[in-house]
Structure formats: structure tokens, C-alpha cells
Amino acid sequence: MRLAGKIAIATTVLMFIAAIVTGPVCAKVYKTALSLAITGPTSDAGNPYSKGVEDFFRLVNEEKLLGDDTIECIIRDDKYETDITKRNFEEFMDMGIPIYLNYSTGSTLGLKRDFEEEKIPVIPASFHYGNLENSHYIFLPIASYSEQVIGLAEYVANHSEGGTPKVAVFIHPSAFGRGPVDDLKKAVAAGLKVEVVEVVEHGKDLDNTATLQRLQNKGVQFVICHTVQSPVATLLNDAQRLGLIAGTFGEKGKMTFLGAHYTGGNDLIALAGEAAENFYWTTSYTITSVPGPGADAQLALAKRYKRDEKTANSHNYANGVMVAQVAFEAMRRAKARGLEINRENLYNVLNDMNGINAFYPVTTVGPVTYSKTDRAGVDSLQLYVVKGGQFTAVGLPFRSVYMRKIH
Amino acid sequence: MSANRWLATGNFFATYKEEQRIFLTHLDRAVFVLFIAVLFTWPIFFELSNKYMLVINNILIAMVAIIGLNLVTGFAGLISIGHAAFVGVGAYTLASICQVIGYDHVAVTHAWPAMILLCGIVGAAFGAFAGLPALRLKHLYLAIATLSFQMIFEWVIHHTSFFNQGQTIFVGRVYWFTGQVGRSEHYFFWYYVCLVTLVLLGLSVRNLLRSRYGRCLVAVRDNDRAADAMGMSPGFTKVYAFGLAGFLAGIAGGLHAYMYRGVGIESFTLHQSIQYLAMAIVGGLGTLNGSFWGPAAIKLLDLQVENLAELAGKVLTSHLSLATALRPLTFGLVIVLFLMFEPRGIANWWRIVKSYFKLWPFRY
Amino acid sequence: MTYFLQLVVSGVVVGSIYALSALGFVLIYKSSRVLNIAHGQIIAAGAFITYALTVFLGIPIFISFLCSMVITFFLAMSVERVFLRRLIGEPIISVIMVTIGLMSILDGLIYLSPFGSNNYSFPAFLPETPLNFAGVSISWTQLVGVLITAVLISAFSWFFNRSTVGISMRAVSDDQFASMSIGISVPRVFGLAWAMAGLSAAAAGGIIGNITGLNFETLHAYGIIVFPVVILGGLDSVGGAVVAGIIMGLIQQFAAGYLDGNWGLSGTANVLPYIILLIILLFKPHGLFGTHEIERV
Questions:
Q1: C216, A44: Cβ pair inside 8 Å?
Q2: Contacts of B148 in chain C (CB under 8 A)
């Protein structure tokens, strides 16, 4: 008994030690990386985005969603400078990451060639359609800006009364802003019933009276914005002062303002205050002011990692979480199929993400589907409108018809 | 001239020609040659990761640009807040050639040294043109005129579809005698190109500075009316200084475009211009070796600050966004403190160190 | 015609805000010949302090606006004391470089606060309905902004022309050695110039923040936007800043109103001020009201 007892204790101790020593050896660490603007231009979007990515990978590791394996995600600030993004990317390549998360339109376009040569799947935060042209390895998380803008134009065409609605496009003076304009014009040429009266590129304006009055004189009824929140807020404030904001959709003699992903969210309400009322916004994400499983999940994750209220309710936080989720899902599937986690396998797994294999993150309004021909993730869009200082959903998720006709 | 051609502690010049020599002693020359030899051979023996090769190449390109900025701001005393635009002019010269004849046209991929030279020439032309206000303007008014050039440059690129409205315009991979320079040897190859360019330009500027065209820059900086009285033409000298700066910046732009294999407006913004100015000042204005210290110091400081921020991010919780804030904070503090205690830049330290070695074992 | 008048009104409104933002540059340049690149960051800081006092501490907005001006007054004064006092007598370009470093430091400090990467807007405290005169409208926010600008600028003009301290500041800007010899403390004047620049920056920040909302990137950009204003007016003229500010505001509004949208042009309001600046400088190399420097060999 004594001897047997000693042996038993010794074996258990040994087993414990073995478990402790070999455990971490078996568990693998998968590296991935994100380079984005946490400081500098667009940092108001980049900051919550980075927290979304960070929190989701922390959750994966703490809840052991990949078994004993863990994901280590390096997050680097590139100050919105392509040169620094390139430097970061080279460093990440030296580390041997199998999938890369990028951020700005400029850097995604600038590094396109490198992605092709390295054959590395990339998920950027820029939904610029040009990212997909002449490239095979860039996967947009949601519908492209072009699709968002055309989707809004379609909504205008379908819901306005009397004649062809006159539309102005208010854009950011950059590649990011101009991207969708040509596509919108193509859609109009293909039969979309709106008239694009003017394309306005904004500057750092303190007063948009001139612009607004000019648009009014030209009979513009709808303004589709594709930029960041701050200029939209100034525009809305001036429109409110001039009494131009339509009380209902398409009100005669007034203007209805609509915007794509980066124009909206709580940041817009924070900046524009009451002038944001009746602003129409489209994105593929669920938002926290509309109750649902997506909102609950997002808030729960933010609460778990003690994020402040602004971050928790930011659509860019949701954006970051979702991108991390797609990267994680690709790894999980590759692992489940017994494949090694490398660039090629992840690329194939992502391309298989369609049909029955489509991926359903809870924070989007539709499934993520990728294939060799379609590398825009969530194809559905949801329209939201500001009512009583909060975004509320309008109708059901929809898809752009003309986007499929022109591309 | 001292009897010992290897060591000279004192000042033994008997003619101006002697004083104008680049290397005062044989020892100076030997050290310099050794240093250049090390620069040319180390990459063969030590393989550095792509990231650091990229950083080093970037520093070399910035050095080329800063020599130009130092000529116009340091030697000729004309503050330029538009240097990134001149670099951009160089890069966009190559980009427009790529737009017209295609990014993998033989002229772009095979005749790249000629292309880089062309970038420099176009840069010089634009530099001289942007320098025209110097005929009438002075000091900060002139500085803001160069700022205007920067703004107009950015606006033109942003609003012209020929320039892809600031989106990246691709530049093809170049060929060397061994065939196409692939991704694996890309940075290695461009290290040598940048280094050769830098050494050549550095030596020629050093030579220029001891000729009458170099001395007239300094004369105009110190007092342009006095220079006028001595028979120099201050107006011409100022425009020529801008042209020279534009040439060097254009070369840097061409190298930048080839090395990053693309041209996008983000690399040539006002922010970059201010960065260039920072490099020139930290290095030491009005000294040629300052043009080498500045870029190296600023770029490496940026890298170190990034590492520090990353370390802080691991140790501290990210809730305070302290790690994010630490980067600009330390960067600014280092620069401010450095300039508070050494307003003449790193070049001044270099001078002190050199004179220490020269006088050793004596104190003075 | 109404359209034209509306553009004029908007131009004057925007222009006077530019003038207020430019004032800080002029004050610092006037006394110490330094171009303060970090001015935009001080403007942003002023706006954020006002917001923090109003919303986090619940102080009425007008009082917190004044408090923020007082705080930046001392903030800028201590910046001068700590970082720039040592550099008196060093090359001007080194001092300008120090302000570039300061810009980075202030960036860091602001990123440390919640304002670095979040957006806010001031609680509405003025009537929503705009004022209308014959079809020309102006919002209360803008009107109050213009009034505050007018009050501050007349106060500064009075200060420079009448008060002893103001006159001593002018003396220092004229000749440092001469003013030292009659007992004016030059370092103290520099400190005071920085402090008043901080104060005016906070006022500008509060007003701009009310119009655009509080976004760090948007706010600190005003440090650069007003460069052409400062130069056009003449670097050392308070009155020049006002005139140039209004000219720039008008140019921008007319560019946006008449050029954009025609002939395929857009965004001209961003570049036209610089082009016109270059042209005017060719005829008036020291700006419209700048002091002509007399150089002696």
C-alpha cells in the first residue's frame, strides 16, 4: 500500500509535470498582424477598429476557441502613411504571418503588387472597389463603397416621387472618396434612374452655404455623402441653418442626406447633434442602437474587456471585431480540415466561404461570402436613419442590383 | 603644410588651396575610404531582414533629399517648407512616364539610371520655378511661398485623373545585368543604387561647396546685399539654390518611386515636408555632414519610439491609450530636449568629437 | 443677388474666425520672430478644455469658455518658460524646430485624453433657428463667433496701442536691445506673447469646435490653414490679420460658390488662397500691412 501509494503520487506528479511541459509545446501560436492609423488622419475610426481586433483575438485565446492553439496579433500604428505601412508589412512578412489585416485605401492600393507577389490573403478596412481590380488576394469584409453608394442611389430611385431624382455626391478629396463616383456614373449609364447633378469635393470648410445654395439652385433633392464624419457634420449643420434638411424622405424643395459606411455611426450624431436627424446611412453591420443578437454580442465583448461606452457602441469597433472574426474563422476551418495554417490554405479556405460554407458573424446583416469571382464579403446592406438622436433600421437588408450589372 | 601628412594637430595652411582640401590629412582620407568600403561590403556578410533594409534604404534616400534641403535652407538661408513637393515632382515624373508608356516598358525597367537622372532634371526645373518668388520675398514670407507650392502641388495631383488622383501609380521591377531584380533581392539591390547615388552626390556637393558657386550660396545667406556689392547676383544665386535643391529632391523622388515600386501622394504631403525640415535642423543646418546625421537620427528615433510604445503596450493595459500616446510624446520630447541643449544639431557634436581626436592627448 | 450677399456674409463669418486663429501667430511672431507650428494643437486643446469643463464638470458654457482661455493662457506661458526660454538668442530656425517638436508632444498629450480619437460636439446652447435678413441667413453660432472675434481683436488692438505692457511688447518687437536698455524684461514679454497667443487660440478653438464639432484632425488643421492669412496680412500686423482673414474667407466662399461645379473644377477653395497669396506677395513682399524690414549691410 505504502509503495503503491508512493508510486501513484509520483505518477500523478509526473503526469502533471508532463502536462505542463508538453502542453504549451503542442499548442501552436499563429501569428497575424494589423497595420492601421491609431494616430493621425482617420484615427477616430482606426482607434475603435484596433480595439475590436484586439478584443476578439483575446476572446479567442481566453475561451480557447482554437483549442490549445492561440492567435497572436501584432497591431501597429502607421499614422496613415503608406511608407510606414510598407515597412510594417515587410516586418510582418519576415515573421511569416499567414494572413494580413490592412487599413487605408491608399496603402491597400499601394501594396497591391506586394500582396500578389507574396500570395498572402489580406483583409483591409477599406471597402474601395479598386482594391479588387487586378488583384486576387484582397478580401473586402463588406460590400464595396461603390456598392454602398449605388445601393443608396437605387433606394433614392425607387422611393422618390415624380420624375428622375436629382442627386449630388459629396465626397472626400482623395482616392477613397472618388472611387465610387465613376461606378455610380456607370450605373446611371446602365439605366439607374437618377441624375447626378454635381460631384462636390469638400475641403476643410467652416461654412458650406455656397455649396448648399448652389445645389439648391440646381434642384438637387438628394445628397449622397461618401467621406468621413466631420465634413458631413459641418454640411448638415449648415443645411439645418438654411432650413434645407427634409423632414421626410424626399420632401419637395428640401434635401435628403444619405451616406456610406464611414460617414455615419454614433460619431456623426456626436458631431452634428440635432442636425443629424433624418440622415440616412447604409452599412453591412448591425448597430447597437437597434436591438438584436449582433448588438448584444458586440456590447458583451466590449463589456468583457471594459471598453468605454463610445468604443462599445462604435460601428468601427464592430468592423474590427468582424474582420478579426473572418481571419479567425479561416484559421479555424483550415485547422478543422487538418490543413496546415499557411497563406495558400487560408486563401483557399476564404475562397470556399460561400454557399453552404458561408460564414455568419452575428454583427453583420448578411453572411460573409467569398469566391474566386466575388471577394466582397457581406453583400447585403442595411439602411438606417437617425430618429430622435439614434440610428434606427429602415426596412430589411437589401442588395444593389446595378452593381451586379456594371461589374 | 605640416611635416607629417598623416597627422596634423594645428593649422598649417599657407595657401587658400590647402585650406580647401576635402581631406586635411592622409588619416582622414584613409578613415573615409575604410568607412565607404565597410558600407559597400557589410550587406554581403550580414543578412538583414527586409524591414531593416527598407528602413536603411529609406534613410539613404532621405539623405539625398536632405542634402538638397540643406543647400537651400542651410547654406543659402532660404527656408523651404515645400521640400516634399520637390521630391514628389521627381517621383511623379517617373509616374507620368509610366502612365504614358506603361509601367513595364523597357525604358522604365532597363534605362532606370537615365530615368532617375531625368527625375532630377525635372525636379531642378520645378525647383527653380518655385524659387522665383525668392527674387522678391525673404525670410518667413518666402517660407510660406514654398508652402504655397506644396499646397498647389498636392491639389494638382489630387485633382488630375492623369496622376490617378493621388492613388498609387505602379512602377515596374527593374533589370540588372543578372536579369530582373526580384522581390528577394529588391532591397539589397536598391541599397547599392541608393548608396552609390548618395556617395556620388555627396562628393560632388562637397566639391561644389568649395567652388565659387558654393561660396556664393553662403555669401547670400550671410548678407545678400553685401554679396550683391561684391559682384554676385543674389537673385540668380537664390533661384539656382532652389534649382539645385530641386535636382537632389528629384533624384530622391525617382529612387523613392523605384524602391517603393509605386508613387502615391501620401509620401509627399506637407507633413513630410515638415519632417524633412526636422531632419535638416536636427542634423545641423549649414553643414554637409548634418545632412547625413539628420535623416538617420529621425528615422531611427521613430523606429525606437515605436518599439518603446509596443513594449509599453505589452506591460501596461491598453485602456489608457498610453501606448498610442507615448509615440508622438517621446518623439517630440527627444527632439525638443535635444534642440534645447544643442540648437546647432548633431553636426556640432561631430565637430566636437573630431576636434577631440585631433587634439588628443591634449585638451585644447 | 441674394446668393452673392449670402456668400459675402458667409465669407465674412469664416474670415473673422480665420483672423482670430491667425492672431496667435501674429502675437508670437511680433515679439519673438518665431513661427509657431504647434498653433493648431493649441487651438484643439482650447476647444477640448472648453468641452471638458462644460460636459464633464457641468460648468455653464460661457464660463468654461472663459476658463479655457485662462487655462491655455497659463499653459502657453509655461510652454514658453520651460521649452523656449533657453533658446533666446539661438538661431530662429532651431526655435521653429522646437515648435515642431512641441506639436508632437501636444499630439501625444491629446491622444492620451479621450479627445484624441473620439468625436464630440458641444451641447446646443443657442437658438436653433437662424437669423434671416432678406434671404441671407446666419446662424447664432456664427454670429456669436463673429462677435467674440470682434471683441477680442479690439481688445488686443487697444492693448497694443494704449496699455503700458502692450507698448513695451511693441518696443521689444521693434528692437530687443534698445528695449532692454530702458528696462523692459524681454523674456517676460516673450512669455506674455505666448500666453496671449494661447488665449486667442482657445477662443478660436471654442468657436471652430462649435461649428465643426470636436474632431482632433479637423481642429488642428486650422493651424496650417491660416498660414496664408497670416502672411497675406503681414506677419506682424494685428489689423492685417483681420483684413487678410476676411479676404481669405471671401475668396474661399466665392471660389466654392462660383468656380466649383463649373468647368469641371472642384475643391478650388483649398488652393485658391495660396495662388492669390503668391500673386499678392509678388507686389507686396511683406504682405498687405507687414513692416518693411530695413536692411543694412
A1: yes
A2: 228, 274-275, 277-278
Contacts A53 to B, Cβ<8 Å: none
Closest residue in chain A to residue B48, using alpha carbons only? A94
- Cβ atoms B86, B250 nearer than 8 A: yes
Helical (H) or strand (E) element with C90 = none
- Asked if residue A133 and residue A54 are part of one domain, the reply reads yes
CATH at residue A219: 3.40.50.2300
Q: What is the mean pLDDT of each run of 10 residues along chain C (297 residues)?
A: 83 89 87 85 92 88 90 91 83 84 90 82 78 78 88 88 86 83 88 91 90 85 85 83 90 82 73 86 82 68
Classify the C-alpha dihedral B264-B270-B272-B273 as positive or negative. Answer: positive
Interface pTM, i.e. ipTM: 0.87
Residues B217 and B232 sit within 8 Å (Cβ to Cβ) = no
Task: Characterise A161 by phi-psi region: left (phi > 0), alpha (psi -120 to 50), beta (else).
Answer: beta
pLDDT digits (tens, 9 = 90+) for B224-252: 888 888 888 888 899 999 999 999 999 99
What's the one-letter identity of residue B153? F
Same domain, A307 and A182: no
The residues facing B229 across adjacent strands are: none
CATH topology assigned to domain B47-359: ABC transporter involved in vitamin B12 uptake, BtuC (1.10.3470)
Query: What is the rounded distance in angstroms from the CA atom of residue B355 to the CA atom of residue B353?
Result: 6
- In angstroms, the CA C62 to CA C56 distance is 15
Q: Domain for residue A32, yes or no?
A: yes
Q: Does B348 lie at the interface with C, CB-CB under 8 angstroms?
A: no
Measuring CA to CA, which residue among A83, A79, A89, A70 is closest to residue A50?
A79
- The CA distance from A113 to B292, in Å, is 31
Q: Does some domain include residue A4?
A: no
Query: A154 lies in a domain?
Result: yes
User: Are both A189 and A313 inside the same structural domain?
Assistant: no
Yes or no, beta carbons of C121 and A233 under 8 Å apart? yes
Candidates A381, A386, A379; CA nearest to A232 is A386
User: Would you call B261 an interface residue with chain A, using a CB distance cutoff of 8 Å?
Assistant: yes
Cβ separation B339–C87 shorter than 8 A = yes
Number of structural domains (chain A) is: 2
> Which of C7, C124, C218 lies nearest to residue A204, judging by beta carbons?
C218
Say yes or no for a CB contact (<8 Å) between A106 and B167.
yes
pLDDT tens per residue across span B105-115: 888 888 899 99
Same domain for A255 and A358, yes or no, is no
The domain of A392 spans 145-283+383-406
pLDDT in tens, A12-41: 655 555 555 554 456 788 889 999 888 888
CA nearest C16 in A: which residue? Answer: A206
What H or E segment, with its residue span, contains residue B86?
Answer: helix B83-101
C-alpha cell at B225: 546685399
- Residue C279's CB is within 10 A of a number of other CB atoms, namely 9
Is there a contact between B324 and A112 if contact means CB atoms under 8 Å apart? no
In a shared domain, residues A203 and A70: no
For residue range B79-95, list pLDDT tens digits in order. 898 999 999 999 999 99
Interface probe for C, chosen from A241, A279, A307 (most Cβ of C below 10 Å), is: A241
Closest CB from C114, C137, C215 relative to A271: C215
Which residue from A332, A330, A357 is spatially nearest to A346, judged by alpha carbons? A330
A318 and A182 in a single domain? The answer is no
- At C220 the pLDDT is 87
Q: Report CB contact under 8 Å: B55, A51.
A: no
Domain boundaries, chain B: 1-46, 47-359
Instruction: Tell me: pLDDT of A5 over 80.
Output: no
3-state secondary structure of B166: helix
Assess whether A297 and A355 both reside in one domain.
yes
Residue A1 placed within a domain: no
Do residues A262 and A160 share a domain?
yes
- The single-letter DSSP state of residue C138 is E
